[in-house]
Design brief:
Structural Genomics Hypothetical 15.5 Kd Protein In mrcA-pckA Intergenic Region, Chain A; two-stranded antiparallel ribbon; about 70 residues; 5-stranded mixed sheet; alpha+beta; single chain
Length: about 70
C-alpha cells in the first residue's frame, strides 16, 4: 500500500487519482470509474467527485493507495 499525502483535509476522488499518478486527466478517471475499476474502502465507487479524507483507501486494480 502506498500513502499519497494531500495538503487539505479532503480531496475529490478524481483529483486524488491524478495526484497519485494513476491517471493523466480527469476523463481517464471517469473511464476507470465507469468501468467499475475503482474501490474506496472496499466498496465500488463510480463518483469522480466523491470526497476522500485521510485514512481512506482507494484501490485501482492491484494498486492500493491510502489518503495521507
Amino acid at each position: 500500500m502506498r500513502d499519497v499525502v494531500v495538503s487539505t483535509a479532503s480531496i475529490r476522488l478524481g483529483q486524488f487519482l491524478k495526484l497519485a499518478n494513476v491517471v493523466d486527466v480527469g476523463s481517464d478517471a471517469r473511464t476507470l470509474l465507469e468501468n467499475g475499476d475503482v474501490r474506496v474502502n472496499g466498496e465500488p465507487e463510480d463518483r469522480r467527485g466523491r470526497q476522500l479524507v485521510r485514512g481512506d483507501v482507494v484501490t485501482v486494480g492491484d494498486t492500493e493507495l491510502r489518503v495521507g
